[in-house]
Structure formats: structure tokens, C-alpha cells
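Last lecture ended with a question: if I hand you only a sequence, what can you say about the shape of the protein? Today we answer it with a concrete record. The protein is MYND-type domain-containing protein. Below, first the input exactly as provided, then the predicted structure, then a couple of comments.
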Amino acid sequence: MQHTVPSGLPNHWIFRVRHVPLDPPGDLVVAVHPQSYFQLQAGPAQILSLPTSAERAEALIPYLLEAFIVGDADRGASWAPWSWATDDQEMATALEVKLREHGIPEELCTVSICTPAEKEIIGEAWSSLVGTLMKVLGKDARTKKASQQIQPGDDSKCHECKKSGSVLTEALKKCAACAKAWYCSQDCQNKNWKSHKPTCLANRPASNRAATASSSRNIGSFQDMINYHTTVAHTVPEARGLAKSLNLSLPTSMDTFEGTGKPIRRLVVTGKDTSENMELLFGPSWSNHLKTQLDEARFNVLLNPPRGSPSYAMNSRLDNGAPSWSPRPAGDDEKQKIVEVREMQSKIRERVGNGRSPSRDDMREILMSFGAAWDQKAEVYTLALNTMDQGVAPLE
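The predicted structure:
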């Protein structure tokens, strides 16, 4: 963790949890860097509906871990917060207790309360996010046919493929955790999990809600994964050999743990980012938590951000001492995504020129040029911007 972010601004973040009437309903976690207005989001989740502050804090922790501790390839380990604050005093108090119980670094176990100015900033960020969500999702919610909706507890049809139980050769099987959903196969249950999850967590026995909310994000397995990386991997000859080929030293305890960003990036740049090698370094549960980070690290490397880009600046320390680059070639889907990013970068350059950062007005005009599909381009815009030369100095 660093006192400052790559731009030199204080590495202090503010966050809040609020309910949004999505379909199905859920709570979103939003974190904002108040000096730059950079935002992170996680969710939806079932947090605020839990009966006690301790249970709400327990359910929130995995989402904070996902956003800050695990991070992603673009931000790198240096963007883990040095300090943070929230606008909910009760949540802050409960979080401090739970963070210490989970062995989170002591620097992050102090959760302060937002200043009036910070409350205004996060309130503005939240209003903007909700407005966008309602604009994007509201139309879909209004036009969804009632016949396509299956209510929790309906045991007449599969909640994923919608097949009636009367036409199936085998009886529908209910979700063992909540008994509110029925499926014709394990495959349908797996496909339906993302939409069923909020209902499932909300309808499990009250005594298990916090634990199930936490386990749904695999917080226990996350800790198992970190424990494996810091205490087991260095004892495995194959893992030691792999680390040596990456010019890395494996940690031998939490005191020497430097995050997941560097080893993952080293695997990608050397073309050794296989499931087998990830398991050697992070143990059998790695895919539950690091698959997205691995995919993002790989795509970042394929884009090969130039000097002066935020991504180059944030990854410069991770690449210091790295072996020669020899990443695996891009697949067809990756090639298509690269084309989308390059096209977006061309649009940005046309508006602001080379080596300059677009303003909020520039961003709005660029995204609005895509018409009704603008919201689908927001992620591509962010990726394009982070991998363009904007005169950002590398981290020392």
C-alpha cells in the first residue's frame, strides 16, 4: 500500500452502500477517490437487508476485498487504499471489528467518517451512478413481459430455461439453500445463479445469512488462496522453479506478501499464464477469485500500453526486472476487443489530440456519439483511456 496514487494525489478513498431497485433488487458498493473522482463499483449484493450491523459488515467485506485488495491488472497493487472512510458511522464501527477478525492489514482496519465535503462528493457520484442505471435498466424493466418472470417459490417450471415440469421426464430439483427456485438440471442452476443469488441469500435461514453472503463471494477460499501463496507455494519445488523463471521470490509469510498483481502479470508477459501454473502459485481455489484479474492482466499486456499511459505508469514497478515479453498470441475474441479499444482511442485523439487527457465534457460527447448504445461503450472508453499516452510519469 502506498500513501499516494500514481498521479501523486493522496491514496484516500470514500465508499458507501446503497440499495438500488434492480431486477432482482440489490445493494451496490461504490468507492470514490475524492481528489480525482475515480470510481469503483461492486455488487449487486444483499447487505442492507441483513438484521444487524455485524452481519452487514461481514457481507460487505468480500466486496471491498474484491475492489481494493485483489484489485485488477490496470490498477496494480499500488492502488490499494492507504486510508478510507464511509458515510455510515454504524457500518464503520462494525467494519473495523470484522476487518481485524479476518486478518486484514491494520492500516485498513481504521474506517473513518466522511467529511462534509466528502459526503457531497460521494453523494454526487452515487446520484450519477443511479441515474445511469435507471436510464439503462428502466426501459428493459418496463418492457419485460410478465410471462417471462418467474416468482420465487414457483415450482411449476425451471427458473432458467422456463420448461414446465409437466413435460420433463425427471422431477424438478429445488435449490437446497433457499428452497425458492427449481431447476431441471445442474447446468440450468449454474446459468441462473447470477440472477437467483440475491433471492437465494435473502431467503436462507437468518442465522446463516451473513455466513452465506460471505461464502457466496468465497471469502474463506480467498483467505485459503492467500494462505497457500504465502505459506505453501514456496515449499513446492515446481512452484519455486516457476517463480525463478519469472524472476520472482515467493513470499514465505504475510509479512513478505506483495499482492497478486506482480506474479499474475509475470505469468502473462512470459506466456506462462496456464491454469496449472496459477494453481502452483495460488492453490486450487485460485479461479474463484483471480480469473477476472488474470483475464484483465492478459488483455492489458496484449494492448501493450505506451509510456505515458496510466497503465504503463501503474505497471512499471511490476515490470521492473521482468523477463523478456513473450505473451501468448491474442485469440479471435481478444482481437475483436483490441479493435474496439483502438477505434475508441482514435475517437479520443480526434477530440483532444495526442498526449492529453479528455475532460468530463469530452468523455460525455465521445460516449454520446454512439447514440443509444453509449452505455455499452463506457467500459471500452475507460480501457482505451488507461492505455493511451497522457504524459503520466512512471512510478519510481
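Comments.
1. The longest strand covers residues 12-20.
2. The radius of gyration is 22 Å.
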